[in-house]
Automatic annotation (TrEMBL):
Residues 18-34, 67-79 have a biased composition (Basic and acidic residues). It comes from the Eukaryota. This is Ribosome biogenesis protein NSA2-like protein. PANTHER family: RIBOSOME BIOGENESIS PROTEIN NSA2 HOMOLOG. It comes from Sciurus carolinensis. Signal peptide: none annotated. Residues 18-39, 51-104 are annotated as: Disordered.
Length: 104
């Protein structure tokens, strides 16, 4: 067994701490505040590179969210509809026999 895998082997045997997932969730939620503070404090060339990196990350997030949204929405298939088909709300109502019935 390699010497650097002792943490993974311990987690495999004993699992995570009871509050591990809660701490991880809170740390991730605080990360956005820390990143915004860092963005405000940086000046000069470091700020320029940092903003370029953040901009690239935001573009990546937007493209992935658009792809997921496009995958989840239903799209109309034009191949199934015949040429010159008329929608049901434009058809004549002559063939319909449903009417209100008032007993006398």
């Amino acid at each position: 067994m390699p010497q650097h895998e002792y943490i993974e082997s311990h987690r495999k045997r004993f699992g995570y701490r009871l509050d591990y997932h809660e701490k991880k969730r809170k740390k991730e939620s605080r990360e956005t505040h820390e990143r915004s503070k860092k963005a405000k404090k940086l000046i000069g060339l470091k700020a320029k590179f940092y903003h370029k990196q953040r901009h690239a990350e935001k573009i990546q997030m937007k493209t992935t969210s658009k792809m997921q949204e496009k995958r989840n929405t239903k799209q109309k298939n034009d191949a199934k509809t015949p040429q010159g088909a008329v929608p049901s709300y434009l058809l004549d109502r002559e063939g319909q026999t449903r009417q209100k019935y008032f007993p006398t």
